[in-house]
Amino acid sequence: MIYQRFASVLACLSLLLGANLPAAAAGWPDRPLHLIVPFGAGSTPDIVARLVSDKLQQRIGASVVVINKPGAGGNLGTQLVADAAPDGYTLGLTISGPLAANTLLFKNLPYDPQRDLDYLTIAATQPSILVVSAQSGIADMPSLLAKLRSNRGKYNFSSMGVGSISHLAMEALAASSGTEIVHVPYASSAQAVTALLSGQTQMAILPAAMVMPHIRDGKLKALAVATAKRSPVMPDVPTLSEAGLKNVQGDAWMGFIMPAKTPPAIVERLTKEIVAIVNSPDIKQKLQAQYMEPVGDTPAEFRATVRADLERWAPIIKKNKITLN
C-alpha cells in the first residue's frame, strides 16, 4: 500500500514536471535573445547574422542582439554559446572550423561540438573558388595541374591562416593531385587576396565574396569551384571533381547553434523561423548579392555536414601535421 501511494506521488510529480516544460517554452521569449558571432563585424558570418536577426525579432516578438566575439579561430565565441544557460536566450552563428576542423587542430578545445551544442540549421553557404592571377597564363585546371606536377614545390598559395578552410582545401588539392605546393598563411582573406594580386603567391582557394570582384575586374581567373556540384554563383566554372580531384571541397557554410539541452520546443521553433527567413525572397536576394545561397536544412542534416567535414579534413591534418597549439 505504501509503495503504491509512493508510486502515485511520483507519477503525479512526473505529470506536473512534464506539464511545466511546455508552459516554460510557451512563455518564451519574454526578454531579448543574444546571437553570438565568433568573428568580427563585417565578416561574412556577421552579415548573415544581422540579416537573419532583423527578421527573426519580428517573427518571435523579441529583440535579437548580435554580439561579436572573435578570437582563437572562432573558438572563443563558439565556447560562449556552449557555456551559456540552455534557456533559449543564447544562440550563435558559426562556421565549419569551430565545429569540425578545430577539434583536430587544437589539442585542448574547451568545448565538445557534438556534446555541448544543439544544432539548428545551416543558414547559408558560399563556394570557395580556386583562382590564379589573370597574368599567370594558366587557362584551366589541366594546365595548372601540368605545371604543378612538373614543378613540385616551386609554386605557392596564400590562405586565410593555418588550419583555415582555404589552407586545408589547397592541401587536399595537393594530396589529390600528387603535387606539392608551398603554403603562405596570412591573417585574413583580404591579405591573402592582396598577396595573390601582387604576385607574392600564385594561387588560392578563397570564399567567393573575397575573389568575385577581382574576377569580374579581370585581375583573377577562376579555374574551379571547391564544391560538390557547380555553384549558382559561377555556373560555367567546373568543380574540382570534374578535373579529377575527388573530395576536395571547401564550402564556406554558416550554421546556427544553441547550448545543448535547450528546450526542444524552442530549438524547433527557432529552426523553423530561421529556415523560413533565409528562404524568403528578400533575404535570398540579399544573400545572393553577397555570393551566398540559402540552405535551411534540418538539425540532423547539419550534423551530417559537420561529420563529413571531419572525415574530409582528418587525413589532411594528420598527413601535414597541422596544429594550432
Note down, in words, how this protein is organized.
With 325 residues, the protein is of the alpha/beta class. The chain has helices at residues 2-26, 44-60, 75-83, 96-99, 102-105, 141-150, 165-177, 189-198, 208-216, 264-278, 281-289, 299-320; strands at 33-37, 64-68, 90-95, 117-126, 128-133, 156-159, 182-185, 203-207, 220-225, 252-259, 293-294. Strands 2-1-3-10-4-11 form a six-stranded mixed beta sheet, sandwiched between helices. It is globular, with a radius of gyration of 22 Å. The termini are far apart.
What brief labels describe this structure?
19% strand; 6-stranded mixed sheet; alpha/beta; 11 strands; disordered N terminus
Q: Mean of the pLDDT scores? A: 90
Sketch the major β-sheet: 6 strands, mixed
Q: Between the first and last Cα atoms, what is the distance in angstroms? A: 62 Å
* Beta-strand content bin: 15-25%
Structure described in brief:
This protein has twelve helices and eleven strands. With 325 residues, the protein is of the alpha/beta class.
Please write out the topology.
Layout: H1 2-26, E1 33-37, H2 44-60, E2 64-68, H3 75-83, E3 90-95, H4 96-99, H5 102-105, E4 117-126, E5 128-133, H6 141-150, E6 156-159, H7 165-177, E7 182-185, H8 189-198, E8 203-207, H9 208-216, E9 220-225, E10 252-259, H10 264-278, H11 281-289, E11 293-294, H12 299-320
